[in-house]
Write the structure tokens for this entry.
Amino acid sequence: MRMHSIWALAAIAALALVSAVHAEDEHRQLGAHVHGHGTLSIAVEDKRVAMELEVPGMDLVGFEHVAETKEQKVAIENAKAKLAKPLALFKLPASAICSVSQVKVALEGGDDHDDGDEDHAEHANAKYDEDERGGHTEFHVAYTLDCAKPANLTSIAFDYFKAFSGANELTVNVVTAKAQNTYEVSRDKPALDLGGMM
């Protein structure tokens, strides 16, 4: 029951932030989304850590349409393989003794959804700007970790930026039984201090 309330708080925080970023982005460039910027939501309850990563396909594989060439398909498989190893991307203190319980990696969007464009067939074989079409792919990844000593989860080092050269920033939403906060980490500042959150 408590986990449900923590997830509800995390969802509210994430939605508020996404709405603000989306509104600001639409104001700057109508219809465009932010490349290089993803969202990581983390909820900690007892010894369980749930993490959810959402990031544009462009950031991880260099394109955001459905993979067409062999090279693009390989790039997606390589990205999925990297994403399947959360403790290599998001380095937690060894003293927390965390292990991966579950990983779900999905790639969503692209040309496989109905974008309401009646002349879609005319563009099937044409090269065009995905920003104009709204045909963006996005990686959605869910992790469940078990940590024997969650009180030691006082920091995260983001090797995620080393693994994905197109990723520049992450908004990180953290919810624990003690507190709720939103942080920004980046390629220039790839570490997060969670002191006071556990």
In short: The chain has a mean pLDDT of 79.
